[in-house]
Specification:
This protein has about 500 residues and is of the alpha/beta class. Helices cover about 35% and strands about 20% of the residues. The chain has 13 helices and 21 strands. Strands 3-2-4-5-6-7 form a six-stranded parallel sheet, sandwiched between helices. The radius of gyration is 23 Å and the shape is globular. It starts with 10 loop residues before the first strand and ends with a strand. The structure holds S-adenosyl-L-homocysteine (SAH), iron/sulfur cluster and FE3-S4 cluster (F3S). The site of iron/sulfur cluster (SF4) has 10 residues, from helix 6.
Length: about 500
């Protein structure tokens, strides 16, 4: 019925023995040796604090935002674990880290809201340490506000120096008051640091960092810096290691994976990288995020069509169906080009699920523009779509555009769009009922422990009767019943 044994290990340590490091020597200057030195040092401080408090210390990393941040959080957890913290699911921990997102205003508000709660927790438990990192910290106004009004925060760092976490934690132990370390940008990529993965059988893999597209509404290029691709050798080495460690599904991560490799010393296309990943033994499923339509090549479509491992799912953000708005957004494709691309993809890979992101209420969006978006939605018939209300991000070109759309108008359009998107998505899902397909079992169902939950190649969720021993295995299932966006099935 299923054919892959679960392996317990989720860790990826790089055979370095912290006990052999002399923490009284001067720190090495080269990376990652320097960080291993600070891990050894931080571990000593954690040990001392553990003795003082009389119980093991717990750390909690809370992630806001996208897959990129989720992967960064795994890197933070890897370091926390190696320096002696136990992982906690609760924010009532000895060390609380918020890895923040700033893509929309409400992401920021959530963080400020939680900080009020953390302040109270720390008043009752003064030894608690609080760190903030991630995209929001790359905004000067945010850091200024924290510096003046949130003095109880111990550590603030950004997206470019996350690899220095061990060094920064050491600084927190050695300093009174706030430690702040924010870099404007970086051209370095530090490899070979510990990672604590959430799942034993699947993993995200960064293939590139940053973004050069500067879509006019988007803050990501300002907070994640310029586009940098990792070398294919490093990526493949990491995936081989993951495979040996029990991982069979990888998700290649970047803000615009289709421009992967363009700036490498020896340029390499994303399609070629995929073809190389395909060769790695033990990897059964390959996913990637996110594809920018302007850079999606015929070569990629061909590689996907020929592949037995690349999942039948493509996330292809539309943002708007109006060519005029797309131009204002600096997306560099038109409605017609987008539709033609979808058609080419569907012709080559008929069973592919296509999902998207759409923004409603970009400055100057008229009813006609919005109808163009609805038209694309009806023509493409997305398997699912994330719909967002436009959020003004200070510092982006769109923030100072005239004709910001009134809230009530946006809300009304948003509801119409959501209704259409959901209706189409459920019709599409219904269409697969009765089919037999394979799922990768991911977890025991949260509501009903007699069920396990897995995903199809096209990323849809399926619940089947089962137990924890099936986690990480591939099971052939019949999709018995469709419930809108997910299925109930049974193993066959
Ligand atoms: N790099 C990815 C997207 C990253 S952000 C891409 O280009 O597709 C994820 C999504 O957030 C975007 O696709 C967009 O739909 C949405 N988004 C980004 N900035 C936004 C803003 N200012 N207001 C509302 N939604 C936004
Ligand atoms: Fe933002 Fe555009 Fe870059 Fe995506 S491609 S991260 S939407 S600027
Ligand atoms: Fe948010 Fe940063 Fe991702 S702004 S969406 S966490 S890249």
């Amino acid at each position: 019925m299923y054919d892959r044994k679960v392996r317990k290990s989720r860790k990826m340590y790089h055979e370095i023995d912290l006990d052999k490091i002399d923490i009284n020597a001067t720190p090495p200057t080269e990376e990652p040796a320097r960080q291993y030195y600070f891990m050894a040092k931080a571990r000593q401080y954690v040990k001392e604090e553990t003795l003082r408090i009389g119980r093991p210390l717990a750390a909690m990393v809370k992630t806001f935002g996208c897959q990129m941040n989720a992967r960064d959080s795994e890197k933070l957890r890897g370091i926390l674990e190696i320096i002696g913290y136990q992982q906690s699911e609760s924010e009532e921990a000895d060390f609380v880290i918020y890895n923040t997102c700033t893509v929309r205003e409400n992401a920021n508000n959530k963080v400020y809201g939680r900080l009020g709660y953390l302040n109270n927790w720390k008043k009752q438990n003064p030894h608690t340490r609080i760190a903030l990192c991630g995209c929001m910290m790359q905004e000067t106004a945010v850091v200024d506000k924290l510096r003046t009004s949130y003095r109880f925060v111990d550590l603030i760092f950004g997206t470019h120096n996350i690899y220095k976490f061990a060094e920064l934690v050491t600084a927190v132990f050695e300093n009174q008051g706030m430690v702040i370390d924010i870099w404007e940008d970086t051209d370095r990529i530090v490899e070979e640091l510990p990672v604590e993965r959430k799942y034993s059988f699947k993993s995200g893999v960064n293939i590139m960092f940053g973004c050069n597209n500067f879509c006019s509404y988007c803050i990501v290029p300002y907070v994640r810096g310029r586009e940098r691709s990792r070398s294919p050798q490093d990526i493949l080495k990491e995936i081989r290691r993951l495979s040996r460690d029990g991982v069979s599904e990888v998700m290649l991560l970047g803000q615009n994976v289709n421009s992967y490799g363009k700036n490498l010393e020896e340029p390499m296309s994303f399609a070629r990288l995929l073809a190389e990943v395909e060769q790695i033994e033990g990897i059964r499923r390959i996913r990637f995020m996110t594809s920018h339509p302007k850079d999606l090549s015929q070569e990629l479509i061909d590689v996907m069509a020929a592949s037995g491992k690349i999942c039948r799912h493509l996330h292809l953000p539309l943002q708007s169906g109006s060519s005029r708005i797309l131009k204002e957004m600096n997306r560099r494709y038109t409605k017609e080009q987008y539709l033609a691309l979808v058609e080419r993809i569907r012709r080559a890979i008929p069973d592919i699920a296509i999902t998207t992101d759409i923004i409603v209420g970009f400055p100057g969006e008229t009813e006609e523009d919005f109808e163009e978006t609805m038209d694309v939605v009806r023509r493409v018939r997305y398997d699912s779509a994330f719909t967002f209300i436009y959020s003004k991000r200070t510092g982006t070109p769109a923030a100072v555009m005239e004709n910001q759309v009134p809230e009530a108008v946006i809300k009304e359009r948003f509801d119409r769009l959501l209704g259409e998107v959901q209706q189409i998505a459920s019709q599409k899902a219904e269409g697969l009922t009765g089919q037999v397909q394979e799922i990768l079992v991911e977890e025991v169902n949260h509501q009903d422990a007699s069920l396990v939950t897995g995903r199809l190649s096209n990323n849809s969720v399926v619940h089947i009767p089962g137990d924890a021993s099936m986690i990480g295995t591939y099971v052939k299932v019949e999709l018995v019943e469709c419930r809108g966006f997910y299925y109930y099935g049974k193993a066959v």
